Amino acid sequence: MSWYLFSSFSDPSGDWLEETLMYDNNTSTRGYCLKTSIPNDSWGEFVYLIRSGLQSKKLRMYIDQFEAGEYQIDIDVLRDGSWANVYQGNVSDYTYTEKTFTAGVVTQVRIRIYRPAAVGWSARLWEIQLECVIPTAPSGCAAQYVATNNAKCTWNDNSDNEDGFRIERNIDDGGWVFWKNVAENIEDSGNYNVGANHKIQFRVQAYNTEGSSAWSTSGACYTIPTIPSGLSLAWEVQDETVRVSYTKNHAYGDIDIYKETDGEGTAHLAYDAVSPYDDATPTGVGHVYAYKIRARSIQHEDSSYTYSAFTAEEEIESTPLGNSVLFGCNF
């Protein structure tokens, strides 16, 4: 458990003295509210203790001279931008009293004193502190492909009390492995060189001295797939189709096929072809068809793809029955 101090104060009424001693981490020094500043049977004015936002759900106070329970304290926190009451009542002298509240980002604590009639001493506050809690988990972790064959992740930082972020990677579903830690307030991992023909995911968590948050896990992205090989073509005379055969060399994704007819224009035939692929789009005999193919990855988390280079084009001529022509090339 870690207790955190305040960095400044505001005392609009001027009723308090030695305010900085209420957050100096020393129970031998104190700030106090003078009895003469509070009318009998009345609440005094608030003093405000201020710090940068801290994820918290508990505070503690060290107080004395409350005249055997006669004085009362009212203490609130400014949590997530709104004031919330933590406690109103008596507290014990010369010991830390802890009070819990609904967790949130706390930027201020305010304190005031109730003075009954006939109480003759000042109320003295020796220390007010906040407990730090485990940081809120990041969200929206997303994997992104970065040319060439790199990947990174980004996320949303939802905490204000992390010491940093821990990032793990998972390549080809081989299990989670620690990659690196990055500093607080960072939302981008930087690039990791994955290499060609791989799938990668990331996950990230916030951490501080109290522990670690839950993970935020990305979808997958894919590096450039290996180019296919062994492209060959055969004219199926009876069906007037072209059979396109090849070897797929990548693990994640499919094959992209393009065709050119008589040297004019390029038509896209298929994204998800399986070898052999029978092209039924030829327009009869006496034409020359040129084909080229490339590998395409599985769709990334951001709906994009990565592609290999194209193979060299292979050509085939459609011929009448009895004059089948075969062209082929292996890589």
Report on this structure.
There is one protein chain. It is built from no helices and 27 strands. The chain is mostly beta strands. It folds into three domains: 3-131, Jelly Rolls (Sandwich), CATH 2.60.120.260; 139-222, Immunoglobulins (Immunoglobulin-like), CATH 2.60.40.10; 229-328, Immunoglobulin-like, CATH 2.60.40. The strands form five sheets. Strands 1, 2, 3, 4, 5, 6, 7, 8, 9 and 10 form a ten-stranded antiparallel beta sheet that branches. Strands 13, 14, 16, 17, 18 and 19 form a six-stranded antiparallel beta sheet that branches. A four-stranded antiparallel beta sheet has the order 24-21-20-27, with no helix packed on it. The radius of gyration is 36 Å and the shape is rod-shaped. The two termini are 64 Å apart.
Summarize the structure.
This protein has 331 residues and is mostly beta strands. Helix content is 0%, strand content 53%. The chain has strands at 3-4, 8-10, 16-17, 31-33, 42-43, 47-64, 72-79, 82-89, 96-115, 123-131, 139-146, 150-156, 164-171, 177-183, 192-193, 199-208, 211-212, 216-217, 221-222, 229-236, 241-247, 254-261, 264-273, 277-279, 288-296, 314-317, 326-328.
